[in-house]
Structure formats: C-alpha cells, structure tokens
Amino acid sequence: MTDTTAPAKKSGGIRDLGKMFGGGGAGLRQFGILGALVLIILIFEVLTGGKTLDPGNVINIVRANAYVLILAIGMVMVIVAGHIDLSVGSVAAFSNIVTVTMLKSIDSAWQVSGESAEVTKGVLMSLIAIGIALVIGALVGAWQGFWVAYVGVPAFIVTLAGMLIFRGANQFVGRSTPQTVPDYLGYIGGGYIPDFPPYFPFSNGTVLLGILAAVLVVWSELRTRRRQREMGAVMAPRWVSILKVVLLVLVVAFATYLFATGRPGTSFPIPGIILVLLVLLYSFITNNTVTGRHIYSVGGNWHAAELSGVNIRRTNFLVMMNMSVLAALAGVVYVSRSLGTGPSDGTGWELDAIAAVFIGGAAVSGGIGTVIGSIIGGLVIAVLNNGLQLMSVSSDKVQIIKGLVLLVAVALDVLSKRNGGLSLIGRFRRPGGDLAVTDRPDVSPASDSAEASSRPQSTVPNP
Amino acid sequence: MVSAVPAILEMRGITKRFPGVIALDTVDLRVNAGEIHAICGENGAGKSTLMKVLSGVYPFGSYEGDIVYNGEVVQFDGIKQSEAAGIVIIHQELALIPELSITENIFLGNEPRKGRNGKGSIDWKAAHLRAVELLARVGLSDDPDTKIKSIGVGKQQLVEIAKALNKNVKLLILDEPTAALNEGDSQHLLDLLRGLKGRGITSIMISHKLNEIEAISDSITIIRDGHTIETLDVAADGVDEDRIIRGMVGRNLENRFPGHDGSSIGEVFFEIRDWTVRHPLVADRLVAKQSNFTVRRGEVVGFAGLMGAGRTELAMSIFGQSYGTKVGGRVYMDGEEIQIRNVQDAIKHGIAYVSEDRKALGLNLLDDIKTSVVSAKLSKISSKRLGSINPYKEHAIADEYRQSLRIKTPTVDEGVGKLSGGNQQKVVLAKWMFTDPRLLILDEPTRGIDVGAKTEIYQIIRKLAENGAGVILISSELPELLGVADRIYTIFEGQITDELPADHANPETLMKSMTSNRKKDVA
C-alpha cells in the first residue's frame, strides 16, 4: 500500500524495487532498514516459539505503538528540515488534558437517552475530541513555529522550553490528578474494524480492507505504467512490475490473514487505519508536493534554498506547527486506548519518535529521511520491545538493548557514508570514467583566501 | 637574479597537482633574508597554493620539488612543524576565537605552563606579562584581557602578528593582510612590517593592492597560471604598478571565446540608480556606494574587480536583498521602478543569480539533477490546487537541459554531488534558465572548472544574450570579461570606477581602474 505515493520515474531491477519505498535517493538505504526489520521479526519468531507473529500479538503491536509512529511522521519532517522537537510528549499531554476537560463539560451538558442516540453521541463526541485536539495542537505549534522560524531561536531550545512549559501547563490545568475519560472515546485508539454478517472464523471487515488494498496496489501500478507510457518516460520491464505487484499483494494477503484471524471481536485496529491514512498523506506531501520539496531543500542547504526563492521561515513554521498537530493527534489516540489521562502522559515520547526517525535512516544534519523509513524504524523498536517482553526480559535490559540498537544503526549509517557515501563524493572519482574529473578539488587553488571577504557569511566580528 | 644576500628560503621546482589540474608547475621562489617579498598574481594563479605547500598544509610528499629553508632541505608534515621552524602563516580569515581574550588567543595551543617541567597548569601571570610585551611590539596598547570580538579587524590583524612573534617567527607569511582593513589600519600594518624587517624578520606578502606592494616590498615574484613569470627587484628594476600589471596579465588571448558583433543588443531595460548597501555586520562599512549601471536587452555586461571589491555584494543585494542592508537606491525595469524585497520578488521579475559558490549557495548537494534543475520555479511543473509536482514533466525538462547543455551524466536521476565542477555549473545554469530570466547575473561562472567546460559556458552565455536576455557577468579573469562581455564596468572598494566598451578595453586599463579609486565620470 506504500507504492501509491512513490513516483516510479526511472525503473530498473532492484533500483525500481528500492523506489517503492520513497524517492529522494534513500531507496536502497530504506531497503536495508526494511531488511533489518524482517530479520528482527524472524529472529523473535524463532526465539519466542512463534508468539511474535501470532495474530493477537501483531494486533497488539499496532495498537500499542500507533501513537509513536504518528509522532515519527511529524518528527521526520522536523529532522529533515534540520531541526528537532523535544516537546512532543508534553504537547500531547497538554492537549490531552485540555481536550478531556472540555469534552467532559460538553458531555455533562448533553444528555441523551436511547441506544442509537448514545451511539450517535459517541461518534460525534469522538470527532469533537479530535477536532479540539487538532486546534490545540495547531495553536501550540504556531507558538513554537513562531520562535523557531521568525525569531530564529534554535528548535532544540524552543522545544526544550516547550517541554517544560506544556508539561507544567498540563499539570496546572489537570491539577496533577489523573482523570478518566468517557468510554465512547475508546473507539479511536482501541477499536477495531467492525465485523458484519455472515460471520466466518475471520473478520469480514479486515478481509474487505485487504482486498481493497490489493486492488489499490494493482491499480496504482497500472496507472503508473500508463502515465509513463503517455509521457514517454523510461519504463521498468514488465516482469519487474509484475514481481513488484505480486510481492506487495502477498504482503497484503499475509497481513490480512494476521489481522483477520485474531481473537473473535478483534480485527484491524482503528489506530492502524489512522496511521495508514497519515502515512499515505504525508508520503504524498513529502515526495510529491512543492511544500515537501521545500522541506528537503531547507534541510539540505538552506543558503541555496533561500537563493532559489524558498520561503524558509514559512517552511520552518509549517514543519514545527505540523509536528505539534500530530503530537496532539497521537495524544488523542493514546488517551482513547488507555481511557485516562494524567500528569505524566507522554513522558519520553520524544525520544521514541526521534529514535524511530534516526533508525529509519534520517541524517542528523538534515536533508535526508523519509516517512516510510521512519515508520519502519519505529516498527523496529516496537518489535524489539514486544519480542523482549514476550521473552520476559526485564525492562532495564530492554532499555540497554534499545539504546545499543539506536547507536549501532546510526553508526552503520555514519560508517557507510565515510566509505564513499554522500559526504565524500568527489574524492573517489575515477579519471577517465563517465563522470571524469574535470574539476578541481574543494581546496581549489582558485579559491584565494581573499575571496572569503566577499562571502556574505563573514565571521569577522563586529568591532 | 644574483644577490649577495643569503636566501632564507628557496622553493625549487615546486609542482602541485590536484585531480585533473596542475595548480603549480615547477614554481621557483627565492626569498632573501630580511626582506619583504611580495607575491603577485591574478586570482587562481596559485599564490595561496604555494604558501600552503610552504607551510605544510599540503604535507611533504603531496608535491614535487624542494623547499630549502636556512640552507637546509626541509620536509614539513603539517603546520606544527613549519611553525617550529619559525615559518608562520597568517591567513586572511583570521584564526582568532572571538569569545576569548587577546592573551588567550595569543597563547592558544602554546600556553605557558607552571611547574618545573612545564606540565602544570597554565601560568596566566606569565602569559599576561608576555602579552603586554608582545602587544607593545606590534604597537597595540589595548588591555590584553579584552575579548577579540570587541576590537576591530585592524587590531585583530595585529594580534595575529603578536601571536606569530610569540612563536619566534623568522619568516612571516601574510595572505591579503590589508584586504579587510581601512586606509589607516593598512598604513599601520605596513609600518609594522617595516619595523619587523628592521629586527631581521623576513616577510612574504600576498596582496592585490599594487600601490602597497610598490611602496613596501623589496622584491616581487609574479605568478601566473601556476608558473613563476619573473622576480623583480623593486629598487634596481624601477618597478611601478604598470610593470607589475603587465607581468600579471601578460598572457596570450586564445581564441576560445564565441564571436559576437553586438547585433543582438537592444534598448536599456534594467537600471540601478544610487545603489548603496551596508555590510551586514560592520555598520560603518559600505559594500556598495552610490552605484549606477544599466543593462540592455541581449547584452553581456561585465563586472571587473578584485576579490572583496564588492561585486558579489552588489549582485546579491540586487537579487532580493540577499546580502547586507540596503541603505538606498532604486531598480528600474522597462523604465518603471520595481520593488525587490526578497528572492521570490526577484525571480518573479525575471532576475536570476548564479552564485560564485555553487556548492555552498547554488546547489543542495543531496539533490539529484532533476530536482535541482526545477528547484527555483516549482510552480511551472506543479498543480495549482494541491501543489503536487508532476514527476514526468520534471524528468523530461531536466533531460532536455541535459542534452542542450551537454551535462555529462547517464541520467538526470544522478546526484549533483557526484558531478564534476563544470557539470555542476551547467546544472546551476539550467536551474536558472528554467526560471525564464530576463536578467541573468552570473557570478564567477567559470571558477574552478576546466578550459573545455569554460568554452561551453561562454557559448551558453552568448546564446542567452542572443535570445534577448540581459546578462551580467562578474569575473576575476580579465581575458574572460574581454572575450565575452560587450561592455565592462570596473569596481573598486564598492564603487563603480569606470565603464568601457569591451573592444576599447585591455587588461592594463581594466586593472588600473580595479586597483584605484580615481573615479572617472561614469557615462
């Protein structure tokens, strides 16, 4: 279901398969992370004696981690733009407490009787809750975006302050006491796709969704090929397309099987649906829109972006604001599943989200990273957590292992760059090759040191 | 040159290669003990490379030839070793730390220690006393506890020299020491160099300011295109500025420029009046002073000036005020005044700016070719409603430019970071051609690229002009300006000093207007 957003421009064997997971030259990298995820799943499947890929466990993993993955979507955009957001946990907590407080006052003012009226009220109230959370997220995000984009305070500081401010605001509003929320809110974070008659040993709703996803996969590949033919673009050989579709359909079928055959009453979880929709939306934004391009260009080289007419402030503002909106949404999903909110909601969320993004292949210096990669990175952590818990590893050891995985993942990335990756391009050019050296090196003899004086970013301090 | 004075330094047959380029080709340099020796040459002639070889920045083994210092062949592996031998280089970007005090900077990496074996904690008392003494020697009376950031550039330069004196310098190398200084500070610095000479310290000075060189140096070595051209004895040879200029530019103009007869030139469509811009950090420094110029349709207008003269600053300040603070001035397009507040405005009005520094300011090196080509005008390939980019159009457009500009790459999906300089420059040109510019400002468009690609870029420039665009060509290479431009302005210290039709100009006249502020009436 990921390839509907991937522009399959130039195709060819493995490269083309790499492109299924988002463009931006990061295809192969994400292929590696995906491989790591599959490997980890298989290892735990063996170690736990088949408990990892048990339908009930898979459903549980999605339900328990949806909120982190939602955060990772926003966080990867922040990190690609060259920033960081440490405040997401506090923002979610603040948004939660305000949402719940407002929801409760609406709830007590709106009395209904009758079962169908109750259901209607539940649905409406859930939507209202999401609406309130999104508005609060937008307001908080505008606040943080203002400081980052228009005042120029580093995001690290702005969000460190935000972490304190909104944690405190949460405890101020909620008087530091845990609160329960009305049961009907539970559907957003804890619900499943409903089943309907005739009843089989599997969930009809999930199977239907699976079929829909498979059809989408086939349709989007056909559409891509048709457009490529119309535009005269280079097309992948037919066998590559067919292989790609078959593989994806198999994945969809396997996922459908897992989610449809859980305990009776369970199926594909609602937070999973929210997540999939967000992934599709944000993959589209980051890969295929002007705004997305601007985010990558600001993170990659903001000087060049500015001189290309990119509105850097607006881009930074939007990225920071969007993160808080998604944090608030993640908060609703979390509250809805736990049916309570309190002064310690969202503690440590920022770290999980940031770890997911970096394991997912984003660069610390900005400019590189994808939504899909970050989701895979988040799933690596989720499966790791889950598998270790299934093996009854105590939480102290789980933390140590998670820390090491993050360290090793990024270290591998750094090392691969050092050995002729992006950062050292130009040093290993072969003379006489296709991209023959016709260039002077960075330490060009043409660059007299005197030219520094004509550079805009002079380091000569003000006398 | 036969001299009775012993040489402190002889560099013999120094050859330094970079991949694809020979930066220095059997360069010889002989510096007599106790003299001030100037090294002259155009930008890119190899002066700084030679000094980097000397100071060990390029370690022994990375170059060919011998360095004989005080009668011995030396092999430096790094700056530490050359400094230990008494050779200290002061770069134009000063290596001072703004937040530390003068004392702390002077002794950075060389701190006096307490204790018998010199391994104890830092002896600040001794450092302070020594700093006062050193500052007195360079004629500074400032408190050595003053932070570097709170003294001016001129004084910072002196602190650098004090730092060198502390290292027991015997051979002091100064790279463009006065480029950032005003008249008074420059004079003080030159006087100080004379004083050091009196104490037996030899200096090598790289400078573009010929009047200073003439005034202070004992001998001059001229380097051109990585070769030693000549060494002049100032007193004996009766050297003056004209003589130096002849040595610097006296190369044959090869026939590598596309012909042009001026037939494409139309009426004036772009005009700048009284353009004045302040330096972004130094409040009292103007980088453009009351500049006026015009550009005609189909015309290539050259801007000649030395590094730091203010050409880039002028261009960038016009291009959406992306440099400095505009103090005054107006822009006219087609006879009407237009407002350009930011880069978006500039692009909307059809102005494009190709930066001199394509890696830092022109490209996002993480991008691939197609993404770069369309990046300055995404609106041309995206839907109005969603802003979604059409990947097929993007690919097709980039591929068109790949073919028409002959960008050497298998596909436009390649990363721009992998391309050679010439091909990167073509990508930047494509990026700005894609914005359909009416006025294209090219800032050193051929810097750091090989001769073949240069010729191709000249042809692209001519073609743009023939299709009706106005082109501003900023270049440090005079032959390039003379060969490509129709008309040339010269700039010196932020001021437009002259305006000449290219066929009436020659390197000597240009160099004169580029190195002095004898302001002529600008037509």
Can you describe this structure?
The complex is a heterodimer of chains A (463) and B (523). Chain A is built from 16 helices and two strands. Chain A has helices at residues 13-19, 27-47, 55-80, 88-109, 115-151, 155-174, 186-190, 204-231, 238-260, 270-288, 290-300, 302-307, 312-338, 349-359, 371-390, 395-418, and strands spanning 179-180, 340-341. The termini of chain A are far apart. The model of chain A is unreliable at 1-13, 17-26 and 420-463 (pLDDT under 50). By secondary structure, chain B is an alpha/beta fold. Chain B has helices at 47-55, 79-84, 102-106, 124-137, 153-166, 183-198, 210-216, 234-237, 241-249, 311-318, 343-348, 358-362, 369-374, 391-404, 421-433, 451-466, 478-484, 507-514, and strands at 7-18, 21-32, 36-40, 64-69, 72-73, 87-90, 171-175, 202-206, 219-224, 227-233, 268-278, 286-296, 300-304, 325-333, 336-338, 351-354, 439-443, 470-475, 487-492, 495-501. Chains A and B meet through α8, α11 and α12 of A and β2, α1, α5, α10 and α11 of B.
For the structure shown, list the relevant keywords.
heterodimer, A: 463 residues, mainly alpha, two-stranded antiparallel sheet, 16 helices, disordered N terminus, disordered C terminus, B: 523 residues, alpha/beta, 6-stranded mixed beta sheet, 20 strands, 32% helix, globular
Unreliable residue runs of chain B: 519-523
Name the average pLDDT of chain B.
86
Strand order of the largest sheet of chain A: 1-2
Structural Rg of chain B: 25 Å
Question: What gyration radius of chain A follows from the Cα positions, in whole Å?
Answer: 24 Å
The proportion of residues forming helix of chain A, as a percent range, comes to 55-70%
* Total beta strand runs of chain A: 2
Q: Quaternary arrangement of the chains shown?
A: heterodimer
Terminal residue distance of chain B? 46 Å
Task: Tell me the major beta sheet of chain B.
Answer: 6 strands, mixed
General form of chain A: globular
Overall pLDDT of chain A: 82
Structural class of the secondary structure composition of chain A? mainly alpha
Tell me the distance between the termini of chain A.
60 Å
Anisotropy-based shape of chain B: globular
| N to C succession of SSEs of chain A | HHHHHHEHHHHHHHEHHH
Main sheet record of chain A: 2 strands, antiparallel
Q: Helical region count of chain A? A: 16
